[in-house]
Amino acid sequence: MNAPFVPLTAQVRLVDLTDPGEVSRLEGFVARHPQGTPFHRPAWFVSVAKATGNRALALVQEKGGEIVAFLPLDAIHSPVFGRLLASTGFAVGGGLLATGGADTTAVFAAVEELALRLTCPTIELRGGVLPPAGEGWALKTRSHANFARPLAADDEAQLLDIPRKQRAEVRRSLGMDLTIEVGTAEADRAAHYTVFCESYRNLGTPVFPRALLDAVVNGFGDDADILTVRHQGVPVASVISVYHQGAVMPYWGGGTWDARRLRANDRMYFELMLHARRRGCTVFDFGRSKTESGAYHFKRNWGFEPEPLTYATWTAPGSARRDADPTSGKLSLQIKLWQRLPLAVANRLGPLIARGIG
Predict the structure, then answer these.
(1) pTM for the full model?
(2) 125 is in which domain, residue-wise?
(3) Distance CA 79, CA 100 (A)
(4) Partner of 95 for a Cys bridge, out of 106, 125, 185, 206, CB 3.0 to 4.6 A?
(5) What is the per-residue pLDDT across 6-15, written as a single tens digit (0 to 9) for each?
(6) Does residue 115 share a domain with residue 157?
(7) Parallel, antiparallel, or unpaired: how do β-strands 12-14 and 55-63 relate?
(8) Separation CA 53–CA 15 (nearest Å)
C-alpha cells in the first residue's frame, strides 16, 4: 500500500496514491508542465510498480495549496542489483519537475531521507531538475543521448525526410509482403509479447513480465497503442508506443530473426511515423540510447541528432555504487550467456529477474 500523507520536511510530503483526487492532481500538473514526460505520469510509475510488485511513491512540494514541485518514484528491489529508488522505474526519463516557486534543495533532502527510511542505498534521477554534484550525488553525462525530431507534413515528405541510405531500406520494406496492424486488443498484446520475448533473448536481456507492458497500456488508455508488422500472418516486428503533448514515443519494441531480412523494423518505425501524424502528433521521440551503441547509430541513420542526457545518482554513506551497466565486464558476460539460452527458458526466467532491474 502507498504511504499516507507523511510529512518529510516542513514543505515536502508523500502523496496518498490511493486517493483518486490526488492522482488526478498529479496528472494535471504533469500535463501542464513543459518538461513533463510520460514517465512522470501516475499512469506510468504507479502502473509499473503494481505490475512488478514494487512500490510507487510521489513527493510533492506545495505553496498556497498548489503543487510547485513533484518527484515520482519507484522503490525497486532486485536480488541481483539491490534496492533502488528511481525516478522513474523502467523508464528513460522522469526526475524532478519544479516551478519557479519551488525549493528544490528541500526536495532533494527529502528524497535522501526517504531512501534511507526505505533502506534503498541508491537513488537515480533520470532527467528533470538535478542536484549539484557532491554530498553523495554524482552526475553522469554523455553516457546516453535522446533522439527526437519533428514529423513531416505528409507521407511522401516523411519518406523524403529520411536520409538516403536509410530511405532505401524503407523503400525495400515497402516492397515486402508485410501487413500493418494497430490496436490494444488481446491479439495485439499477444503478438507483441511473442516478438518482444524473442527480441530480448537475442539481445541478451531478461524480458519484462507481460503484466508490466499490459499495465502501462491499460494505464495510458487512448494515449498508448501497439503497432505490429506481420509477414504471411506471423508477427515479425512490434512496438508499444505512448503519446504525450503531441509527441509519439516508441518504447517497447523489437523484431524476430526474420525481421532483418524482411526490413520489418524499418517498416515498423516508418509506419509509426505516418500513424502518429494521423493521430495529430508533431514530434517523433525515438527515445534514449547508450552513446555509440548499435541503437544510437541506428537512430542517427534515420536523421535524428543525439541530445546528450544527464542523470544524477545518490549513494548512501558507506554503500557501494550500484552497477547495472550492461557494458561492464561482469554484465557483458552474463549477456552473452543469456543469448545462448533456449527461448522457452529465457521466457520463463526473464520476468523473474527483469522486474527488479528498474
Answers:
(1) 0.86
(2) 12-145+310-322
(3) 40
(4) 125
(5) 555 547 999 9
(6) no
(7) antiparallel
(8) 19
